[in-house]
Write a structure and sequence with these properties.
Helices cover about 30% and strands about 20% of the residues. By secondary structure, the protein is α/β, with parallel strands linked by helices. It has a five-stranded parallel sheet. Strands 7-4-5-8 form a four-stranded mixed sheet. Strands 9-10 form a two-stranded antiparallel sheet. The longest helix is centred in the N-terminal third of the chain and has 14 residues.
Length: about 200
Amino acid sequence: MSTLNSRELIIERAAKNKPEQSALPDISLFEKKNKGDLSAFSTVLKNIGGSVHLIHNLEELMLIVMEKHAKDSRFYSPIEEIQKLINQAPDNLNDGHDLENVELAIIKAHFAVAENGAVWVTDDLMGNRALPFICQHLAVIITENDIVPTMHEAYRQPSLNNYNYGSFIAGPSKTADIEQSLVLGAHGPKSMTVFVIIN
């Protein structure tokens, strides 16, 4: 039997043994553009080791931050308004090693996802890609209207279209590899706080 005939035989057998067609699953639930649930987001984030604070402005954020962290700690933020509040000196962030002693990083996120407690951050909001992962503690700012219910909705967001680097971040880093004992902050921030600006 020639190679050509063998190929034709395989195609013919495959055509005869096609499985029966079945209806596609109903995905209408995921096509609805619903607003996310702040309560659901808060619950999920707390369950995975994070915390949520509702604020009206950045001054409220700084009051909470100063209560939790020592005044002589190094705070860093790529957000201009925060830089003024913490008297941040200009930094050259070409090298992530410059961030090794950052106690608290304060960044913005494009949006949050209620079903898994994640926030979507791209490099234009990080200032430096290492920042959210090298700091001891991470604070993220979102607005209440920027919470989507599911990852299906998340992947429809415009901020996922054009970026060089981005990451979904959900809670502090965690591992339970050793004796199945959960450890937070084993290979990243020890805590993650999301500040939600309410309308």
